[in-house]
Structures are given as C-alpha cells and as structure tokens.
Amino acid sequence: MLLTPLLPQRWMAAAGAVALLAPLLAYHVRRAFAPMNALFRALAGSVASYRDGDFGFGLAWRGRGALAELVDAHNRLGDALREQRLALVQRELLLDTMVQNTPVAMVLVDPSRRIVLGNIAARKLLGEGHKLEGRDFDALVESAPDAVREAFDRGGDGMFTVGDADHEDIYHLARRQFRLNGRRHELILLRVLTAELRRQEVQTWKKVIRVISHELNNSLAPIASLAHSGSELLRRGQVEKLPTALATIEDRARHLEGFIRDYARFAKLPAPRREPVEWSRFVAQLREQVEFRNEGATDGIARVDLVQLEQSVINLLKNAHESGSPPGDVALAIRRLPDAWRLDILDRGTGMNEAVLSNALLPFYSTKRNGTGLGLALAREIAEAHGGRIALLNREGGGLCVSMVLPD
Fold it and tell me: Which residues form the Histidine kinase domain (predicted)?
C-alpha cells in the first residue's frame, strides 16, 4: 500500500531529468550534425554559383563514406565545368579577334534593325570609325554613298563601286539571314575586291595577249602557207587550183578582220553622243531584235547614246536568254529615279556563284566555251561612259538581275 504514492513522484523525477538533459542533448545533436549541414549549404551554394556561371571554387570534406564520394564527384564536376568554360572563353576570344580584324566588313542586325555587332572594317566603312552597336542600320545606310544605298535597295547579293574614276573601290555585298536565340537576324558582309580585281585584271590582259597571239597565228600561218602554195601553182602554170587557195586566204583574212574589229570596238569605244530618246521607241526597236517581257512604264525621255545603249541592252538580254531562263521570264524594267534612269535586265536562270560575280565585269572573262568575255564588260564601259554604273546580283527565287543606272 505504501508503493502507490511513490509512482507519481518517480515519473515527475524522470520528467524533470529529461527536461534538464534535453537542451544538452539537442546541443550535442546539432553540434554533431553541424558539419553535414554546412556541407549541404555549401553544396547548395555551389550549385547556385554553377547556375550563374561561377566555377572558381571547390569543397573540402575530411570525412569518409558516401559524403566524401559526393564531395569528390562535385569537385570533379566543377573542374570539368571550369575547363569547359575556359576553353569556351578562349574560343570566343579567338573568334572575336578574327571577326574584328578581318578586312571584310561584318554587320549583324537584329529584328528591330538595330546593329548588334559591327567589326573594325564596318566602322571604317559605314561609321567613320565610330562604334556601330545600337545604331539604326537603315538610317545608317540612308546616310551612306548613293552606290551603297542602291546596292541595299536592290536586295540580295551584288557588286557596286564607290568613288570616282581616279580612286574607286569595288565591293561585293552578301546578305544572309538566320535565327539567333529564336529571333531572325541578318548578317551583312562587305568585301573589298579592288586589289583582287586589279590583280585579276593583269592576269586577264596576259590572257588577252595569249588569245590574240593564238588567233593571229591560226589565221596568218595558213594565209602564209596558202600564199606560198599559190605562188608555186602560178610558177608551174597550175592556175586551175588558184581560186580555191585564194578563197581560203580571203576567208581567213575576213575572219581575222572581224576578230580584230570586235576587240578594237571594245578598246576604242567612242564617247557617247547623247540625244533625246523616248523609252517607248527604244523598247519597240529592241523587240524587233530580241524577245523579252516589259515591266514598268516606258514613258519618258532620256539623253543617251541610242546606238551604244541599244547594243549594250541587246547583249544583256541575249545573255539572259542563254542563262537557262524560260523565255517568258526574261524581262526589261525601266524605272525613273530622282535624278537618273534605272534599267534592270531580269531572268530566272541559274544565276552566278560568288566567283563569277566577282569576275563577270572584267574584260575577256567568260564562262562560255566560245564566249569573248566582252558583253558585260562592254555594258559596263557604256554605262560608265554615260556617268552611270552597272551592278550584278542574284535574285531571290533564282535568276540574275543586271542593273544599269544612267544619270540625267
């Protein structure tokens, strides 16, 4: 009977002891788990740093077991990410160095027509050496020389000339569109071809000398041989064979005469004799000689050399027919500009690759087996003699546009 009152007292004593020992126990538990908690916080912090692109630190853990393996794996991951980041930075630095120092002017334009990137060559060409990033590209083109603005207005790839006769630079324009970060951007490349074309021009003239020498030899050698044979026939009294020999001599002489005349016409193009020409009359005369579709209005009068311009445009229209274009897609478009006339000869043929575009206007350059290489070069000479210019560019959807601008 005496044990019953003692039970509550024992329970109270035990509860008091637990109450006294609990803080101490909690303190030791927290102290025992503190390193692991710190490790977990460090792991969380390092993951957040990796997400932000910071890989410049590692973790240390003196313990063993699964946590040690976790820390080692985490550190190896950090090392790999750090090495990849360093390699990426080096590649970006190399790429930026190449982009900035290339002689090709490069401009990257975003969908709002703002310049995202412009290298050093682009700054010199379009921005007078000033930074281009953030500027409105269309406004920049509007303030550029007329030839640059017209090249961009035509769209697509093409060539244009900046400067005067004493100092001119020839450029090739290339435009490419692509998606960057889900948005459509445009990359514009402007490459100076002046020095390259000058070197090619020297090589072309060497080729011309070889071609002329070859043609002269091909004609003069048989003429000399036949003349000798004719004299021998005459000496022997075999005059019945003389007409054949003389006819062959005449044929070769006339061929040589025509060959020299064609080249002389290009080399000695006379100054244009300007006269008022109605475009409607000009188009009507062209239709009598070559098939084409007319686009745009033919009203108006221009002051041009009718013979020279007609010869040039006929050659261009014939080239368009020989490009593989359907005859119905060969067109001539005449448009009025503020202070000039613009003639576009259009086709839907195979167009030209970059190498041909770069050389097509050079004298004697031809991709045809029997071509003289004078058609486009003569058209350029005629346009420039009128104070104008000519440009070639591939059309969207295939084909070529030869654009000739003739000032008033």
Answer: 211-408
- pTM for this one? 0.44
CATH of the domain at 327: 3.30.565.10
| 13 within domain boundaries | no
> In 3D, which of 145, 144, 146, 174 has the Cα closest to residue 159?
174
CB-hemisphere CA count at 13 Å for 77? 14
Domain count, the chain: 4
Rounded to whole angstroms, how far apart are CA atoms 277 and 294? Answer: 17
CA distance 375 to 197: 18
What's the CA gap between 334 and 320, in Å, rounded? Answer: 16
Please tell me the predicted confidence (pLDDT) of residue 227.
83
Q: Which domain holds residue 162?
A: 102-192
The C-alpha atoms of residue 80 and residue 323 are separated, in whole angstroms, by: 56
**Maximum pairwise Cα distance, the chain:** 174
**Do residues 266 and 366 make contact, with C-beta atoms less than 8 angstroms apart?**
no
Q: How far is CA 16 from the centre of its chain?
A: 89
> For residue 71, what are the CA distances in angstroms to 45, 46, 80, 187, 261?
13, 11, 14, 46, 88
Same domain membership, residue 135 and residue 78: no
Distance CA 6, CA 295 (A): 118
Instruction: Supply the pLDDT for residue 2.
Output: 47
CA distances from 294 to 328, 334, 340 (A): 10, 8, 19
Give pLDDT < 50 ranges for the chain.
Answer: 1-3
Predicted local distance difference test score (pLDDT) of residue 3: 47
Burial class (CB in 10 A: 0-12, 13-18, 19+), 190: buried
Same domain, 201 and 187: no
- CA separation for the pair 213, 220 (Å, rounded): 10
**First vs last Cα of the chain: how many Å apart?**
134
Model pLDDT, residue 94? 85
Give the pLDDT score at 1: 44
> Amino acid identity, residue 406?
L
Dist CA 392 CA 355 (whole Å): 12
- Look up residue 292 and give its two tokens: 């084409």
Task: Locate 95 and state its tokens.
Answer: 């790429």
- For residue 34, count CB atoms less than 10 angstroms from its CB and return exposed for 0-12, middle for 13-18, buried for 19 or more: exposed
DSSP-assigned letter for residue 271:
P
Instruction: Name 227's Cβ contacts closer than 8 Å, sequence gap at least 6.
Output: 249
